[in-house]
Amino acid sequence: MAVQDRQQVTIYEVAQRVGVSIATVSRALRGTDYVAPETRRRVLAAVEELQFRPSRLGQSLAEGRHAANGIVFPDLSGPYYSEVVLGYEEVAAELGNSVLILATHGRPDPSRKVLELARRVDGMVVMGRTVADDVVAQVAEIGVPTVLLARAAVGALDTITADNDTSARQLVEHLLEHGYQRFAYLGDPDSSPDVTDRYRAFREALTDAGRKPPRSPVRCAFDVDAGHRAARRALAGSPRPQVLVCANDEVALGAMAAAAEQGLTVPADVAITGWDDVMAARYAGLTTVHQPMRELGATAARWLQDRMAGSQAAVRREVLPTRLVVRTSCGPHDAEKEVRG
Amino acid sequence: MAVQDRQQVTIYEVAQRVGVSIATVSRALRGTDYVAPETRRRVLAAVEELQFRPSRLGQSLAEGRHAANGIVFPDLSGPYYSEVVLGYEEVAAELGNSVLILATHGRPDPSRKVLELARRVDGMVVMGRTVADDVVAQVAEIGVPTVLLARAAVGALDTITADNDTSARQLVEHLLEHGYQRFAYLGDPDSSPDVTDRYRAFREALTDAGRKPPRSPVRCAFDVDAGHRAARRALAGSPRPQVLVCANDEVALGAMAAAAEQGLTVPADVAITGWDDVMAARYAGLTTVHQPMRELGATAARWLQDRMAGSQAAVRREVLPTRLVVRTSCGPHDAEKEVRG
DNA sequence: GGGGCCACTGTAAGCGCTTCCGGAAGCCGG
DNA sequence: CCGGCTTCCGGAAGCGCTTACAGTGGCCCC
């Protein structure tokens, strides 16, 4: 009742109440060893009566584990990261782990924070361009199982990514079939490993097809607003690009708005493509690349669990397949269809 | 080097190495008491050399605090929750707390999970319709400072919400000025306290203006897809509603797509409004209500900090102002402007 | 009837830290 | 020269739990 009653009831009080040792209480509670049914009953009754809840701290210290794992990501704005984190949290929770989050975006000294996080979890996943490789290596060396997500492999760590290469090539091929000549790329290849790959594959595909890729990307951040501004810049170019290949769907959505504002129709005057296949993309008729975001997170959580359980299996590297989703924003088709790859 | 070297170096090893007691090491590390400069230097050198990092568990147990706080929310899909969580995490991290997340959406037994979370944090915020009031009360009674976010007050807990009433009224008034007669409401008033309020205020405003509110809402979940389906249903009604007032922006975005599919132009054939003012709303020309999402989260984190610091100040209740943002989806205006409220 | 096993329980040793308390020097002023 | 203050440091008591180890009866079986 009293507010200042922060004094938690401990296992000692329960033991005293029942007239047994704390060991017995612990055993009765965890069902880990023989306890007479009658004793157990009395213990549970006392627990109920006193509203005893074992201290997580005491438990963890004794068990030597946190029963928690962490995830560090750059940001949470935009559906992409949210979905990944959600997929991760869902599985981690199912596996009995609490999840600690850490957003590095724009924070001073992310390395310190990551190392700090590493000390409160039994394992963690590190996403994208959040901290340098040596920090990841350090975390791993401390002995905290780590899996990398949407980021280049570091040392002997499990790594899961989505396929950017294949889809980028498919995308370019598809666009070339439309007969487009002048391509612009909207997005910052330095912003995330995914975008780095996409941009590289985009250029390669163009080169392989005997076309000249754009001199440089139109750099912009990962949001609708940035995409909007970048598209304005791109469309001001002369000759005007025929296609805006955008690093993700937010950027593409912004680009579509920018095109509309300039009186350009998509795809007649300019084709636009995105990446990720967020829900809004469908309604915008955006041609994009579908990514299994939830699954990325979920898989990371499962792999992490294996490592935390002590698995010494070979390093896992997996590239989840993506899928080109053709809608209307890239040009007219006989019928709207989804090309699978 | 060895992988199985999970054995962390402890404060004892450092102490032994330097030839002092663990007490001295602790003091040198935390700078909490007198330590001879030379001793400190040697301790720090040993710490560096052994790569000693104090165990968070040991520290927490001794200090009696977790240095962490939690946030429970229904879901992370859609920009709304993400933004709130991000605002929260940002401030919490600044204040030196790690943050634990818990998504209740669709999980069995959220109460147990929430109670569990409560035992690993020094304080937590509970958002929206995640768990019943009695669970919140229980958490508070355990002695875990709690602040409520976007949810009706429970007991003597700090509560922060966004203003739904005023904005709903402004929205309705604005729509009435357009001369609309037939209103439909898309969203599930039972899905979240915010929507409950919005729907109620929406009806009241209509009634107050001498209009008859719709018999019932067109119930749908909180995403674009659900909004799309709900709008299709709503638009099939006869006579067709002139306005679709949507519970949030995702729903409205879905509704806009549905209208377009049916060959209806917005706002000429049907006006559509949203709620939240997510980034995409701007580019869709969506009239909506701006919510300070980041700030909701940030404020919650700050209040929580006060309570964790032991503040016994009076219960805080704050309703953050929202702002009607008039764009094109509600009807033609002389010039696009933003009406502030 | 006694040895052995099984079911049950208590004792106590940690887990890795923080911090109270008290002792030991060193230093200063009277 | 001595009392008292300041500075520095070690001992040890927790913090709240888990679990290895060591019993102690009771029962069964030969």
From TrEMBL, chains A, B:
Name the UniProt key words of this record, in alphabetical order: DNA-binding, Transcription, Transcription regulation
Q: Which InterPro entries match?
A: HTH_LacI, LacI/GalR-like_sensor, Lambda_DNA-bd_dom_sf, Peripla_BP_I
What range does the record give for the signal peptide? none
Domain HTH lacI-type, chain residue ranges per copy:
9-63
Provide the coiled-coil residue spans: none
Residues annotated as transmembrane: none
Is the keyword DNA-binding in the record? yes
Report what the protein is called.
LacI family transcriptional regulator
Organism placement in taxonomy: Bacteria, Bacillati, Actinomycetota, Actinomycetes, Micromonosporales
